[in-house]
Amino acid sequence: MLSRLPRSGFTLIELLLSVAVCMILLGGLYFAVDIQVRSTRTGREVVDEAMVARAVLDLIARDIESSITLNHPFKFRKGSATFGSNTSSSSDTSGTSTDSSAASGSSGSSSTPASGSSGSSGSTDSSSTDSQESASGSVYLPPGVVGFPDSLNIYCRKSAVIDAKASLGAPVGQGDLRRICYYMARLGTPEEALVRYEVMQPLTPQGLDIGLMPQDDLAPVVAEEVRAVRFFFHAGPGGSWVEQWDSRSMDYDDLTPLGPPRAVRVEIDIEMTPRPGFDPVTHTYSRVVVIPVGNVPSIQTREESGS
User: Fold this and answer.
1) CB neighbours of residue 57 within 10 Å
2) Where are the domains of the chain?
């Protein structure tokens, strides 16, 4: 009679338990890897969006900080004969011819210049390069900043660009007043995108006419991810945020040009391309840009020199 020897092996229950344990471990590993991949992708999207927002805000901030203003705004006050002055003297009716001769650099005028004019008789007035008076009596000044809630015109000074093709002895460059415009437009993009338009701006009545925003098909798109842009302007201490600004507007005395704002707050809405199956999400980024030459209390409260 043969005796049965016990066989070494695993029972069915042990096999099922081992398979279940392996499935749990593999499932946990899969979920851990999936969470890591999702977290990495989400972090990368956040970084990409922040980089786009920072690049756009840096570009706008550099242009705003380089906006121009008048070194001596009181030299560009309205003429007493043409616009009316804070002086009550009626003998200043000849101030128009006096100011005109002073601006052109003519000498020998014995009449006293009108209130607010700079320099003495016989010297060239520096305002002739910054202010031009048309036949209708409008004074054209460098605007500085002309802004609206959804668009911005910046008049700034750019440093000279050296032409590499010019001769070594006498390099030729370009450096002049530039007009930079930011606005939303649909230029070859499925939706509106932020556009930056830059052009050389001559100091002429026609050149300083802001008119409508330029619709140039060649204007470069700053970022297609920008879905909206908003601008707010602050006049300085004691002021508040406003949605429109014109540096050529007259100050509280109705004589002195207002100049650029003290600060500009820029808000942009960024919408990155969503992943398949996800809805697009819009985030708002903002930055406050302080203009070093902006409207300050010393400009507003300084007394007029001369008589």
Assistant:
1) 17
2) 43-76+136-164+171-301
Quick: pLDDT tens for 236-293: 777 889 999 888 777 777 777 778 888 999 999 999 888 888 888 899 999 999 987 6
pTM for this model (two decimals) = 0.62
153, two tokens: 């015109």
